[in-house]
């Protein structure tokens, strides 16, 4: 009997590290294990993965905590007898945009790791900056403006790098570090992303960055998939020599570091595939391997994302374009007022989710013209810096109509702000906490006029990373792996979870999009007046 062949995906997310081992050839998941940073974070001063800061705009994490978590997770997998020696390839996923700053000793320290000793204490002196800014940081507005101006404004920046400058993107973060601590920047010989930092540990050498995560930096030429000299120049001096190479998302970087072989029993031939960002990985974990299907994740924020076949960027600078693991492109649009806004409306009328659903059932599609701009918090798309909910043809005292207004207008906003893609979704995979609510999915199907599948996967980034490892391994072995066949056993939506759009609601929502657009435009004009 052949020994089964496993692939391992790791997901280094904001609050936890997850491992998922699968047997691609048999279409089954063998094991998943997760460790929250709080379980091993006390010594590093972090809570829920981030360091307490006086300034709420500054959000950093201690990278040594990530090292400790990797070690603790492997210890646990080993102690539980997981077949690490049968893992053939490892790839991973990192929270996007976060950056790690390392001094010139980093490559030698990786090579010299002593398997007789724990990992974190051996890496205490490799950092030129002890903390890593992560995607929740919003302290770089000035740097965003400087880089964006140097690249010719928002539309030109988006066309060149895939997104206009955003506070959490890596380039503006690097520029802020260079400006605020020039000596620290001079000491920095290597800048890694969260993804490439973890890959470097496993590889025992400085790891490249893939085109998916590279696109979240405002530093990569989105068309050529190479570092963009003008962006590097606008960001910080001598940046090129501090960045690793960019590579395709299926690249095998080399065999696993001897440290992990000796300490955890991996086979020395285990390959390390390049890591990517959590969003490119999730696209695979959700089975979005063909353009046309989009996912809507109804979480704290709502995100609208999916594969796109051509690299089209958003001239208004609201959407992002990243490289996708398939070699295509993906888009992601992030709306901050997601679950938070729905919960505020629910709570304002003293309802539970059943009451909220009953309100949706009791009100008609189009809500008789009622509209809401649900800016309970400042909004990312459209950019609204000051919170303030706006209503039209709607009174704040009307419970049921407000429930429908928040859900409908969130979906109308997605429909409107995804227009630049010039391709309406053909089907939508709904994920995230609120996707459990069938009435919300009913509104989604009607507003977008396409079928919606409820898609409950909890580890889409780790699953995507493991599938990317399987894909990279097969490709390196000379096969021409078919993405849809590879993901099918793991990520096929169930027909029973399908909500069909009602064609009679199409004209209602076409008119509602117009009315919503006019309302939004008028309101944004008052903010800029
Ligand atoms: C995407 C983004 C987040 C992070 C963390 O642009 O900032 O989704 O990747 O999950």
Summarize the structure.
The chain contains 19 helices and 24 strands. Helix content is 36%, strand content 19%. By secondary structure, it is of the alpha/beta class.
How does this model look, in words?
The protein has 19 helices and 24 strands. α16 (438-448) links the parallel β22 and β23 (452-454). The radius of gyration is 23 Å and the shape is globular.
Features:
19% strand; 19 helices; 36% helix; seven-stranded mixed sheet; alpha/beta; binds D-xylulose
Query: Helical percent range?
Result: 25-40%
Strand content: 15-25%
N-to-C CA distance: 74 Å
- What's the number of helices? 19
C-alpha geometry: globular
> Residue ranges: pLDDT <50 for 5 or more in a row?
none
Q: pLDDT average, as an integer? A: 94
Number of E-state strands: 24
| Main β-sheet description | 7 strands, mixed
List bound small molecules: D-xylulose
Rg over CA atoms, rounded to whole Å, is: 23 Å
**Structural class determined from secondary elements:** alpha/beta
Task: Walk me through the topology.
Layout (H helix, E strand, L loop, with lengths): L5 E7 L3 E8 L4 E9 H4 L19 E2 L1 H17 L7 E8 L4 E4 L3 H6 L20 E2 L7 H10 L3 H8 L8 H11 L1 H6 L2 E4 H10 L5 E2 H4 L5 E2 L4 E2 L1 H7 L10 E2 L4 E4 L2 H7 L6 E3 L2 E2 H8 L7 E6 L3 E7 L11 E4 L5 E7 L3 H10 L4 H10 L8 E3 L16 E3 L6 H19 L9 E5 L6 H11 L3 E3 L5 H17 L6 H5 L10 E2 L6 H23 L1
Parallel strand pairs: 1-5, 5-14, 5-15, 9-12, 16-22, 22-23
Antiparallel strand pairs: 1-2, 2-3, 4-7, 6-8, 10-11, 13-14, 16-17, 17-19, 18-19, 20-21, 23-24
The chain binds D-xylulose (XUL).
